[in-house]
């Protein structure tokens, strides 16, 4: 039953208990309890009249959503660091704040990328499948040979927080680190991580392991396509924990099948939750269902940060990790004028 004294907002999927407890404090919450992602028609219906929403990467926040919500909507607090599901210019146009959850999932996502890198290089899931199939075997010098990780070259495509966390891990494995990013950090950052800048094609030709850490934008969609895959070494491993569409999945499946690269480790997919059927048939790809940030502590930390953003906006404070601060500044200027 709606309580008119408590600002109403929508949470599009159940979050860990401590986050839900926090979100229930002082507000009137409409929660979509699942199963799966909130259906679009229900999302558009339920957002009507709400002052805020905690959304997921499976919810598309666009003009249609913002129009359906109505002019009282103040904030969309995304439960993810990635925000390619949000049309940020549209939010800004509608005067709606948008926020994400940076920082709290950096190390966990780098751990996941590292585990995919190791698993793909050393054929861990393939060995596991082999034994579970009750296949007969004796120890063999030529059995399931993988690629060394230690001492090799790690190529990071994207050198933000998670890319840098990967560089730190690489040091423990005695690896050389090269990176590519459109925003080149200051020299002291390169020195801190002992990482050298490369043009993308040079990085692909040099690296033994290529790990993707870019945002999904028009510029990064299919950044790794058939042509770029051909620039990689036949012994190379490609890892993606960013967003699926940065890699042309059909081209990757073909490259893996043809042995153009050694293996891949994928947490994200081009048409999530669908996985390209050819990938499902291949032994040299390790696939997990978008688990990059999926630890108990990190998923709680993400929810707490999303709640901080939502509550701040509803209480008239600047959300700590707002993506379009100009909306906040404009609101303040308007309030000062009136
Ligand atoms: C993100 O935060 O963008 C991840 O993909 C989910 O944790």
Give an account of the 3D structure.
This protein is an alpha/beta fold and 338 residues long. The protein contains 14 helices and twelve strands. Strands 8-7-6-9-10-11-12 form a seven-stranded parallel beta sheet, with helices on both faces. It has a five-stranded parallel beta sheet with strand order 2-1-3-4-5. The longest helix has 19 residues. The site of (2R)-2,3-dihydroxypropanoic acid has 7 residues, from loops.
Q: Secondary-structure blueprint of this entry?
A:
Blueprint: E1 8-11, H1 17-24, E2 28-31, H2 40-46, E3 52-55, H3 63-69, E4 75-78, H4 88-93, E5 97-99, H5 106-121, H6 124-132, E6 153-157, H7 161-172, E7 176-180, H8 187-193, E8 195-197, H9 200-206, E9 209-212, H10 226-231, E10 237-240, H11 249-257, E11 263-266, H12 277-281, E12 285-287, H13 296-314, H14 325-337
Parallel strand pairs: 1-2, 1-3, 3-4, 4-5, 6-7, 6-9, 7-8, 9-10, 10-11, 11-12
The protein binds (2R)-2,3-dihydroxypropanoic acid.
The secondary-structure element order is EHEHEHEHEHHEHEHEHEHEHEHEHH
| Cα shape | globular
Low-confidence stretches: none
What percent of residues are in strands?
5-15%
Keywords:
338 residues; alpha/beta; 14 helices; 39% helix; binds (2R)-2,3-dihydroxypropanoic acid
In short:
About 40% of the residues lie in helices and about 15% in strands.
């Amino acid at each position: 039953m709606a309580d008119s004294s408590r600002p109403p907002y929508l949470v599009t999927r159940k979050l860990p208990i401590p986050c839900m407890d926090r979100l229930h404090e002082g507000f009137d919450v409409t929660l979509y309890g699942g199963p799966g992602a909130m259906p679009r028609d229900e999302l558009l219906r339920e957002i009507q009249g709400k002052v805020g929403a905690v959304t997921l990467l499976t919810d598309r926040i666009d003009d249609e959503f913002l129009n359906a919500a109505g002019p009282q909507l103040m904030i969309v607090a995304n439960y993810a660091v990635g925000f390619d599901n949000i049309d940020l210019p549209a939010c800004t146009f509608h005067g709606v704040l948008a926020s994400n959850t940076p920082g709290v999932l950096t190390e966990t996502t780098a751990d996941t990328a590292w585990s995919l890198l190791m698993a793909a290089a050393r054929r861990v899931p393939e060995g596991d499948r082999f034994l579970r199939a009750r296949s007969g075997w004796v120890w063999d010098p030529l059995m399931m040979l993988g690629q060394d990780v230690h001492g090799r070259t790690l190529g990071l495509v994207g050198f933000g927080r998670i890319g840098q966390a990967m560089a730190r891990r690489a040091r423990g494995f005695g690896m050389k680190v090269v990176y590519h990013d459109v925003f080149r950090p200051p020299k002291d950052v390169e020195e801190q991580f002992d990482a050298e800048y490369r043009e993308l094609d040079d990085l692909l030709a040099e690296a033994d392991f290529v790990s993707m850490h870019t945002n999904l934008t028009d510029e990064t969609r299919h950044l790794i396509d058939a042509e770029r895959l051909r620039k990689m070494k036949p012994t190379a491993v490609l890892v993606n924990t960013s967003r699926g569409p940065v890699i042309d999945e059909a081209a990757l499946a073909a490259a893996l099948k043809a042995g153009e690269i050694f293996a891949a480790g994928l947490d994200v997919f081009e048409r999530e939750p669908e996985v390209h059927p050819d990938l499902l048939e291949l032994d040299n790809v390790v696939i997990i269902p978008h688990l990059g940030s999926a630890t108990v502590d990190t998923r709680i930390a993400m929810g707490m940060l999303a709640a901080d953003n939502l509550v701040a906006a509803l209480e008239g404070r600047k959300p700590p990790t707002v993506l379009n601060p100009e909306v906040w500044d404009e609101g303040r200027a308007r309030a000062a004028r009136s």
